[in-house]
Structures are given as structure tokens and as C-alpha cells.
Sequence to fold (426 residues):
Amino acid sequence: MVGGLRPPGDKSISHRYALLGTMAEGETSIRNYAPGADCASTLRCLGQLGAAISRRRVNSSSGEPVEELVLEGRGLGNLQSPRETLDAGNSGSTIRMLSGLLAGHAFHSTITGDESLQRRPMKRIIEPLEQMGASIHARDENFPPLQIDGRRLRGIEYQLPVASAQVKSAILLAGLLADGQTTVTEPVATRDHTEIALAQFGAEVVRKSRVISVRGGSNLRGQKLTVPGDISSATFFLCAALLFPNSNLYLQDVGMNPTRTAVLDFLSSLGAPLKILNIGEISGELVGDIHVMGGPLRGSRIEGPMVPGLIDEIPMLAVLGTCTSGGLSLRNAEELRFKESDRLATVAENLGRMGARVELHPDGFDIPGGQRLHGAELDSFGDHRIAMAFTIAALAAQGESSLRNSEVAAVSFPDFFERLEAVAER
Ligand code: S3P
Fold:
């Protein structure tokens, strides 16, 4: 892998900017909004709720033309009742975080998603949002479609039973529309983009380690924002570079929020030759460049509090694990079973098809190191991260592979294949 690349805008941050921009007063402009289908789902739902969204071309400070997404804020608590069912597509972030806002609006709404989303657990948001005063009906009390009857909410103190940034964010967003203060305590620190964005938009938010409080009713002001590159998307290229000895890859403008950079620490701990340069800040988020070269890697173990910080990177790290000297063991990662696919099962299935030995556990796996993958008929199982991780696996394998339903990569990274082609050596 040789050359340079700017990963697409961060998916997590883009969702949050769109949701908060709609709840703010005045205009919010967002540069480098994530191009994938997930963040488009958030915009589509917000449009159905009365948001005015447009795009315009402007010149950046260096004179380059750039596209901005422009949201005319509706102000706090002013979403319009939707005429039709809201469709979150494949996006867990959209359905969970938007439900937090819908819970605080005094109208009825229905929100659902694609087949994969309809299998993902929602009780984790229903419980706290009902404690705040909303009424939410779900299929089998847990699955979309969600029928939400929102109302004026009351602030609560809530201890999260699972480490989930989406659930934390749903409660904090509902907290904006609640009387008094809403406090969430996390078992393990998860990505804090909501907290940063809330402060950026002028909300009253207080953080003491894993305890986060937001005061209801504080008016949000429209912002001029730029989204950093998505480190989770960058991970596919970082790992691809590590798999090929002659790699020399430079990734620019990557989000360096410390709640997202566990993958860099982890790869460094395996002996990965990577350097972080040009650290700066945009819109309250850290951003920097990463230089990576190929090189031999040691094995490692991911468990306990490490898991939430690496949650989206594990499919790619599993593939990498086969090529390390000591392999990769994973434990306490049962949450992976509830992602866009059951990622423990889909990783093990595809690695197995490539001839790798994998021992699957209810909450993880053991993947021995020093394995040579062979080409195989692979499947994305409708999961964008599985599609991308196994495209890289196929490149590293001996012989030809095919990947069924590879186009699902567009959920987070529409031009993944073109970008990979551009840096892959012939
Ligand atoms: C996300 C949180 C994580 C992550 C997902 C994005 C977010 O999900 O897996 O891709 O933007 O808050 P959970 O909150 O379910 O762990």
C-alpha cells in the first residue's frame, strides 16, 4: 500500500452534527459530512421531521472549492410530526439517537430500518426513555419498528448497563428536551462525540470522568463545523498497509479523539511502525495524520475495558491477527453479536472459508498467528465492516476470492474500492 489518502468524514460525528444542527437556532454548516448511506439516513429522517437541508459549494481558506451541508435549525423541541414512517436504513446510530429526540416531542412517530436493523436490540434505549416519560412500543419489546409517543420529559439519573455510546447519546439528547438535569454514568468510557458536540452547540453539559450531565432547555446555537476523517474507516487502510512489507502510506486529517484512538495504541503495542503527526483541533475534535509502513507484528489479547474502544475495528483486527506471530484472542465482546451482523460469527465464517483456524467463544475468539489465508468465496453478510475487512483479507490471501454483496461497504465508505485500488501496489 503506497501513497496518501484522506478517509471520509467520521460517521459518528456526522450523525451528531446533523441532529444537533436541526435542534439549534440559526444555520449550521458542516464540511466533510460523512458520505455513506448511514449518515444519509439521518438526513432523510430529519427532512421528514421538517429540517431544511441543502448543500452549497464554497471556497475553503486555501481557496479550494469544498461542499458544505447546510441545515436551517428549527430550534429546540420544534421537530414536525412526520407523515410517514421514518426509515433509519441500516443505521443503529440513527434509530437510537433520533429516538432520544423523538421521545421529547409530543407527537406519535414510527421509526424502523432494514432487515439487519430490525434484528438489533432497542430495549437498551426504550428503558431509559420510558423512565424519562416517553411511551415506546417495540416488536417483542425489543426490536424495530419503534412506535414512539413523545412528551415533555423529566431528567433522570441513569447507570448504563452496557457500554454504548449510542445509548448514552440517546439519553443525553432526550435530556436536552427534559425538565431539570439528566445524568448518565457509563460502565466504561465510550466515544464522547456527543458530549463534545453538545458543548460546541452551547448546551450546558458537565463531565466528571464517566458521569455526564446535561441540563434540559438550554438553547443551542447553529455552528460552522468540519468533520474529521473517520479513524474506523482509516483502520482498513492502516491494517492493509501493515499486511504488505513494502507499504508506505500517509493518512491525512484523521479524527484523533482519544476515545477513538485505541486502535492506534493497540497496533503500536503489536509493533506496528506507525507515526502520528500534525495534531490539531477542529470543532472541538482532535485531528492528525498517520504514517504507516509494513512490518511484522506480535500477537495480542483484547478483553475487558479495551473492548468498547476497539468495537468497530475488531473485524479488521481479526483478519490481521491471522498474520501476526502470536495470533489474536478476544474476550468480553458479546456486544459484537448485536452489530450490523453477528460479527463474531461472520468473522469466524469468512476466516474459516479462507482456511484459517478460529476457535469461537460466546464472547470472543482465539485466532492463532502465522496463518496463510487462501482465496475463497466470501460474504459480507450485509455488513459494511465485514465487507471491507474481508476485501483486505482477500488482497493478502493466496489465490482469488469473491465477495458477495460487497456494495454494502457504501454504508460508511462509498468509494472504498476505488481508494483501495489507488494505493494498492501492482
Ligand atoms: C457508535 C457507537 C457504537 C459503534 C457504532 C457507532 C456511535 O455502537 O459500534 O458503529 O456513533 O455512537 P454502540 O453504542 O452500540 O456500542
